[in-house]
Amino acid sequence: MVYLRAKTVKGERYLYLVKSVWDAKKNTSRQETIKYLGKASSITKDDIPADYRNDKKIISYLSSIDAVSIEEKEELLKKLKDQLFNSLTKGDFDATKQLFDAYSSSSGMASFFEKLLTPVMYKIGELWVKGKLGIADEHVASNIANTLVKMTNTKFAEMPTKKKIVICVPEGEEHNLGANILETYLRNLGHKVYNLTPPEPHDSVVEFIKSTNPHAVFISVTLEDNIKPAQRLAKKIADKSNVPIFVGGQGLKNQDVKFEHAEVVRGLNLRDVGRLVSKNK
Predict the structure, then answer these.
(1) Cα R_g (the chain), whole angstroms
(2) CATH 2.160.20.10 is right for the domain spanning 70-154
């Protein structure tokens, strides 16, 4: 049986998706966490794993714990995405920054990146590919998004270092917004992050990893065309180092894509990635 478990911290309710697992040896059931969902006040269907997204009991519970129903939250999120799309494609940095400040003050920086900025930027990229948006509009939107992320990043420059993380992209991968967002979030957690984007030659990336000896390496892949270069990069890193390698990004939607020398991470939010880093010694 799957259900939601709530934990209240400083007056804010946080939710976990859990399931009951029967322990035959102890002849009793135990709880097993499927996923940490986040603040109850900001959760929508997209935060719930696809297998459980339409469970009536879960949707009913989510709607009952807050004055705003989950349907209303999703409608509000759609309006915010439309506002962000307009401000990005029109080159209005001030409006984009105001939306970021307003949303992140109540729902957090990670939520803004995951629920607003990332899906809106993917939409802009898809419209450009289909010829429905000009290349200039796409460049303007990307520049504003990267400027916002870098501006946020500067807040964490003097934080104490927990672990060293390298983020890189394969040769040919010119999109680095995902890498910049991940850098900002991990630095927010107190990690020292080396963001090797735009792309560096694979040999240079490998030599840098050997010299810095990081706790983990993340390879970001935005386009499917760059999967094979990413596989080659992962192999080169693994041949010269035993550092844990993780690969993620929009380009890895195809569940059949495998990496022999790296762990593919799909469906993880930024908080999940943060916990993944913490587990690696």
Answers:
(1) 20
(2) no
- Identify the residue with better confidence: 261 or 175: 261
CA distance 270 to 146: 17
CATH code linked to domain 159-279: 3.40.50.280
pTM above 0.70, yes or no: no
What confidence tens digit (pLDDT) does each residue in 126-159 have?
898 899 999 889 999 999 998 998 888 766 555 5
Spatial distance between the Cα atoms of 98 and 81, rounded to a whole number of angstroms: 14
Domain parsing of the chain, residue ranges? 2-64, 70-154, 159-279
Q: CB atoms < 10 A from the CB of 274, how many?
A: 17
pLDDT of residue 165: 93
Cα dist from 10 to 37, 39, 63, 208, whole Å: 17, 12, 21, 43
Tens digits of per-residue pLDDT, 34-79? 888 877 777 777 778 878 877 767 766 666 655 556 677 778 788 8
